[in-house]
Amino acid sequence: NIMQAHDHHQDDAAAPSHVAAETMIELTGVNKWYGDFHVLKDINLTVRKGERIVVCGPSGSGKSTMIRCINRLEEHQEGIINVNGVALTNDLKNIEHIRKDVGMVFQHFNLFPHLTVLENCTLAPIWVRKMPKKEAEEIAMKYLERVKIPDQANKYPGQLSGGQQQRVAIARSLCMNPQVMLFDEPTSALDPEMIKEVLDVMIELAHEGMTMICVTHEMGFARTVADRVIFMDGGQIIEENAPEPFFNNPQSDRTKLFLSQIL
Ligand code: ADP
Ligand code: MG
Do 21 and 27 contact (CB within 8 A), yes or no? Predict the structure, then answer.
């Protein structure tokens, strides 16, 4: 029974120690349409501070749309989205507030090609946060060191490998000091040998206590890092569970089919 699988989580044993009691993100009864197409169907999801969520599911199931709604890259039509205590409404002040708290990393990096790595990282802190240039550069270098590419600071994105570009994208997000990081298939455009260097950065971030929602099909990552794995299909959350029961004892036939295709 699908709903039982979904509800089961509520009864789970105590949360891991890195998960705080406070709610960081809450979606309640969220529905979204693209024209006539009902893309998100009654999404309910609570993410607590420090929690790491992996979202998986077939292509077209609404994973990107769901996480893009969380920082208003897409607009939902029904339901409530709350981020760090602020409701996502048409109020521009709220949207701005939420975007400051939420970092996002995309499949295709989305770096500015005409800016250097360092300039990519300092642009928003300088222009959005009004940070002095020197301070923004110091912070950027700190994060470029964290993602292990300080030596690439003065290059342009096109001169970097895909794995390096994605690490720049992560560093750029971190420069805004986000409370939550959203990852939308951050490794799926990468050559296999570069996947690990990006996942390693994400794992480190998780261990530093970052609240994360990661859309990914890297099931090794999900097993080691996720507190909860969420499976979406047809615009719905079909099943969610801790990684161990999710992978070893999936409840829904759709989850079983999906896992049989990717594992
Ligand atoms: P996923 O990330 O799980 O692959 P998406 O959220 O990207 O799924 O897409 C879900 C569905 O919505 C797909 O059928 C897709 O074609 C459709 N879709 C996505 N973006 C748009 C859009 N801007 N306009 C119309 N349909 C869209
Ligand atoms: Mg997607």
Answer: no
